[in-house]
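Milestone 3.1: sequence recovery, worked example.
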């Protein structure tokens, strides 16, 4: 085993500084994910156009990859030589020298570069580390003639802690073209991630060509009519091209064929697949259909077998993902054919029917040499006899269940690794999933990996990028004007830089991860993302200190991005590209009037530092939900609708309290709760809220909570003419 996290610099800080200034040495290296063992030596090696490269015969693709990357930015065209002893650069595999799967050794001395992998994947990772040792411009797709290509002299030995370092990309809710998918894979590979769960099927779209069922893509891949028709799919040739592209980069593509739920697009194409046979349309909005695959029809089971057979032949991975999440069993309970299967199999609950189906499929796939992967529901609905791999997306401790039932697990908890949630709640933040609190970069990075189960049960981690926020290319909620309003850019904004945190979670052991060290290394990676033409969320400036000095507040800031400028205002306005540049601590009269942004350039900058309103005076009312202002309330009589997704998590009794803060009185009437468009509770009320009665509380019992589904309230309001009332709404769970 490689001893974890030993980073050794053989020079003193003063010695290093002198060497940087002489250009004899590069800056300390900042590799993500952090290598297990890294020694940086004195001196650098300057790359030249006339260098030669020798490589093992099995590494032709990886050698070409390196040559292409180098050629684009440096213009160098390193010639191949047969003799390793004479080559300047050697790429080799040696499973004796490097014992760990996907591991590598990289040495750069004054004359030569040697990269040795345990396997081709490990060698590829050695190349990635080598590229990260070079200036960020190395990743550019155009010639960078001004750059000096100097590599620090290093000895690195490295290997991953977990074999599964995944991302899920939801191409079903939004169709990303083949080029974007390749770009996503390339970014994963840069950070040594090795599994892409390709979420090809969902209610809103079927994206995989299946020759035996052409209507899946003729019909199921498209929403809307005529000129409003949107969608798309990957032909089998496209898939082969993506697989080949990924293979060079050590990324395995695992197709996800969702059933028995999340497959309305197939039911639209072939209505006989469902229990009712009813004709539906491919939805244009986020929607979770209750029309499941009918387990009682031979035709449906044959369909599933055919689709899985064709998919299994197309994708070389030894895994196949069968989805399995969020099935609601109403249709199965009502379907005589499904009921008949339950009787035949001696099943007492409709959910056991899902377990039955999982078993049928797992047996089928085993014959093809494939292991079934699915969302955690596949090990929670009935007993599954084949060992499967469950993606734990709710509670990390459910890996214990996987251990106890002979299965394996991948950690993909929504709380930390769903990258479709925004990073923060600063006003102006990108609008994204809301059914849980935001996931900051630190929260994503800090997830413990092996706390609950045996390490052997947990294969690794997986970030998930769902696309239901901009289904079919329509952003349901717009990007802030700071960012380009394109869906692919939006996907990148949410994915980066958090993907780098997920990558390090998967690569490094719990003990070797260090948030401050990661953040420090990350500061030089934004420039790498820029050269890769990859959008990202620019982090707000770091507040190094905030101290009271007399009646003023003194801010000391630092840029979280190497080379970025910090701009600020002290009057509460939004900083822009001509605002004052921060160079030394700033004193302000009112803390909340201080605003500062990190500026990469005049088109790419962060949200401002933001201080949340102080709700401490309202603590007894619970969590803040919404704020009403005169402009939110209809004149005279009307209703005010506000979102409460993620505020009432789980079933139970809650107090929803309206608190008047200032302005005129207002009448409050009935409060109605909605789950998406479905009306739930309705609480009558007739009360005046204002200076006399500052708080009005509605008590509500929630029985239909569903994660991932938006919840709203609508309250009747009445004022005398234009409403000039201000206040907050809070929610508190009533202890039972
Ligand atoms: C999921 O988020 N429905 C797996
Ligand atoms: Zn049925």
């Amino acid at each position: 085993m490689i001893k974890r996290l030993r980073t050794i610099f053989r020079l003193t800080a003063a010695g290093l500084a002198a060497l940087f200034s002489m250009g004899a040495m590069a800056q300390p290296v900042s590799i993500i994910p952090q290598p297990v063992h890294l020694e940086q030596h004195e001196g650098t090696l300057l790359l030249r156009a006339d260098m030669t490269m020798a490589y093992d015969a099995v590494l032709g693709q990886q050698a070409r990859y390196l040559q292409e990357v180098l050629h684009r930015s440096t213009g160098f065209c390193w010639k191949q030589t047969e003799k390793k002893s004479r080559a300047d650069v050697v790429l080799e595999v040696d499973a004796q020298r490097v014992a760990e799967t996907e591991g590598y050794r990289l040495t750069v001395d004054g004359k030569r570069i040697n990269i040795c992998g345990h396997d081709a994947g490990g060698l590829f990772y050695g190349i990635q580390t080598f590229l990260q040792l070079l200036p960020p411009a190395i990743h550019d797709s155009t010639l960078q003639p001004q750059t000096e290509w100097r590599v620090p002299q290093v000895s690195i030995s490295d290997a991953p802690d977990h074999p599964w370092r995944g991302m899920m990309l939801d191409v079903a809710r939004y169709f990303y073209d083949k080029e974007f998918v390749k770009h996503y894979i390339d970014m994963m590979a840069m950070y040594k991630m090795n599994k892409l769960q390709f979420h090809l099927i969902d209610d809103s779209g079927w994206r995989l060509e299946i020759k035996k069922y052409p209507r899946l893509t003729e019909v199921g891949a498209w929403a809307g009519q005529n000129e409003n028709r949107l969608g798309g799919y990957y032909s089998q040739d496209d898939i082969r091209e993506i697989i080949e592209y990924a293979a060079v980069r050590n990324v395995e593509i695992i197709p996800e064929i969702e059933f028995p739920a999340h497959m309305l697009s197939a039911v639209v194409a072939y209505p006989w697949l469902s229990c009712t046979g009813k004709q539906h349309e491919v939805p244009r909005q986020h929607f979770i259909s209750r029309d499941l695959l009918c387990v009682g029809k031979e035709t449906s089971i044959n369909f599933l077998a055919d689709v899985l057979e064709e998919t299994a032949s197309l994708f070389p991975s030894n895994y196949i993902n069968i989805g399995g999440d969020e099935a609601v069993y109403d249709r199965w309970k009502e379907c005589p054919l499904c009921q008949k299967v339950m009787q035949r199999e001696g099943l007492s609950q409709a959910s056991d029917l899902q377990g039955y189906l999982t078993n049928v499929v797992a047996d089928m796939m085993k014959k093809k040499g494939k292991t079934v992967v699915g969302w955690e529901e596949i090990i929670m609905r009935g007993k599954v006899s084949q060992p499967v791999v469950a993606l734990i997306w709710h509670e990390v401790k459910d890996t214990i269940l996987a251990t106890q039932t002979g299965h394996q697990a991948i950690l993909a908890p929504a709380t930390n690794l769903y990258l479709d949630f925004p990073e923060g709640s600063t006003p102006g933040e990108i609008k994204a999933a809301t059914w849980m609190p935001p996931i900051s970069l630190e929260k994503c990075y800090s997830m413990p990996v092996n706390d609950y189960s045996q390490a052997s049960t947990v294969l690794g981690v997986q970030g998930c990028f769902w696309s239901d926020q901009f289904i079919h290319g329509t952003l349901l909620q717009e990007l802030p004007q700071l960012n380009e309003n394109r869906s692919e850019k939006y996907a990148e904004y949410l994915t980066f830089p958090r993907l780098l945190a997920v990558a390090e979670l998967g690569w490094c052991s719990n003990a070797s991860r260090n948030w401050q060290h990661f953040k420090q290394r990350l500061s030089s990676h934004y420039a790498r993302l820029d050269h890769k033409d990859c959008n990202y969320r620019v982090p707000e400036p770091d507040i190094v200190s905030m101290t009271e000095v007399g009646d003023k507040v003194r801010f000391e800031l630092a840029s979280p991005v190497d080379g970025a400028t910090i701009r600020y205002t002290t009057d509460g306005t939004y900083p822009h590209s001509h605002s004052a540049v921060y160079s030394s601590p700033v004193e302000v009269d009112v803390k909340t009037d201080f605003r500062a942004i990190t500026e990469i350039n005049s088109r790419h900058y962060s949200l401002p530092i933001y201080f949340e309103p102080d709700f401490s005076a309202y603590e007894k009312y619970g969590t803040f939900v919404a704020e009403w202002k005169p402009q939110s309330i209809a004149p005279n009589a009307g209703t005010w609708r506000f979102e409460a997704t993620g505020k009432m998590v789980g079933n139970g009794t809650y107090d929803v309290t309206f608190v008047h803060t200032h302005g005129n009185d207002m009448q409050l009437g009935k409060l109605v709760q909605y789950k998406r468009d479905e009306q739930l509770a309705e609480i009558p009320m007739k009360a005046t809220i204002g200076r006399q009665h500052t708080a009005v509380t509605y008590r509500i019992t929630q029985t239909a909570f569903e994660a991932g589904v938006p919840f709203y309230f609508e309250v009747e309001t009445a004022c005398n003419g234009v409403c000039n009332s201000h206040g907050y709404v809070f929610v508190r769970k009533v202890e039972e």
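Confidence is low (pLDDT under 50) at residues 3-24, 475-485. Residues 350-367 form the longest helix (18 residues).
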